Amino acid sequence: MEDYEGQEVEFWAKLAEDGMSRSSMLRRSAAAAFGLTIMGSASTAFGMSRAGLAPPQRGSKEGLAALVKAAKKEGKLNTIALPPDWANYGELMSTFQKKYGIKITNDNPNGSSAEENQAIRSLKGDSRAPDAVDVGVSFAIAGSNEGLYAKYFPSTVKTIPRAMKDGRGFWMGDYWGAISFGYNQNLVSNAPKTWKDLLKPEYKGKVAMNGSPLSSNSAVSGVIAASLANGGSLNNVGPGIDFFAQLKKAGNFIPVGTTPQTVASGQTPISIDWDYNNLAYIKEFPAARWAVTIPSDGVYGGYYAQAVNAAAPHPYAARLWQEFIYSDQGQILYLKGFAHPARFNDLAQRKVLPKTLLNALPAPSLYAKANFASIGQQTRASKQIASDWPSKVG
User: What is the band of 156 on the pLDDT scale with cuts at 50, 70, 90?
Assistant: First the structure.
């Protein structure tokens, strides 16, 4: 590993030299390039084959200037399924564009994790393909096993908790949150405080969820949380599926996926969603008089993961995006969007987290009871939902 890292630093240093032509750089770094070539599907990636050299698998502070230079030459970054009001992605994307002068094209903003992976498959070799994705962990695992992602370790990887990253480098957790209830106080007189509350007749035709658990990680997490409150566990989400079947039978659960538009219009008076989404709606839609509670009888926390497309049309920009997201600046922007950044503990220990942002979050005691599923448990939950949800809930 030490020899590999030494070759990589040398590679970046040569790439950064002023006035060096591409052909000269390739000749002088042939040995390093051999050590950096990514085997498998990544070696035939669209962007990499154009460059004639695979981008590095590991970021470093020494190589950042060269990475920026290479990414600026590409000039574009394709993202997908990043709603501007989700975890403050709007500001994250605008800040990245201003900082590096690289234009972002964000396709299908309200897409699901499943659709993100599908876009990598269907657009392989196309300049419109996503360069990076932000997916639920179960989808990240599936994408890694399928060979959809390239290995990349951001330079701050050591401060990302071990439980939130793939040891092989195919994906890294970027932020986490807890499942919550958001509700429109104009349409909901009494705040639902527990999962069992949602079964009350007063909530008929008012309870929605962010997407379908057959394709959306946030919805899968909602089912897991419901399971914890109804006799299930992280190893058995059957009771959660049964709860939603009961909620549908009572007429309370509506087949409308929550979006910012449905919140603003009042179409989804109660939304089961991540806390950072529901908390963001408070300021975004003041007319809705949106409020948020974290259910006391089933507190579930989960995180999303970033991954680089193995066939990214802009491979250097994709890696620069990772460096930005996992930098102090990027992580604090997540916190500004009410999401807990992956490197939260490291930032807190170094006392670089703004107190105003910390004070804007719900009380820490509400998160103390949060349960986090292991990778294996999340995978089993997704399989159980895929098997039982269609027949029991529809």
Answer: very high
What is the spatial distance between Cα 127 and Cα 134, in angstroms, rounded to a whole number?
19
d(Cα 259, Cα 265) in Å, to the nearest integer?
A: 10
For residues 320 and 100, is the Cβ–Cβ distance under 8 A?
yes
Taking alpha carbons only, the member of 310, 332, 375 closest to residue 174 is: 332
Asked whether the beta carbons of 205 and 258 are under 8 A apart, the reply is: no
Q: Does residue 255 contact residue 193 with C-beta atoms inside 8 Å?
A: no
Structural domains of the chain sorted by starting position, each given as residue range(s) with its CATH number in brackets: 40-171+303-356 (3.40.190.10), 176-302+361-392 (3.40.190.10)
Q: Beta 76-80 vs 103-107: how paired, if at all?
A: parallel
Write b or e for each residue in 177-195: b if 16 or more Cβ atoms lie within 10 A of its Cβ, otherwise e: bbbbbbbbeeebeeebeeb
Q: Flag whether pLDDT at 4 surpasses 70.
A: no
CA 235 to chain centroid, in Å, comes to: 23
Q: What are phi and psi of 75, to 5 degrees?
A: 75, 0
Mean pLDDT of 74-100: 97
Nearest to 223 by CA among 194, 244, 208: 244
d(Cα 142, Cα 382) in Å, to the nearest integer? Answer: 11
Give the up-direction half-sphere exposure of residue 332: CA atoms within 13 A in the CB hemisphere: 14
Asked if the model's pLDDT at residue 1 lies above 70, the reply is no
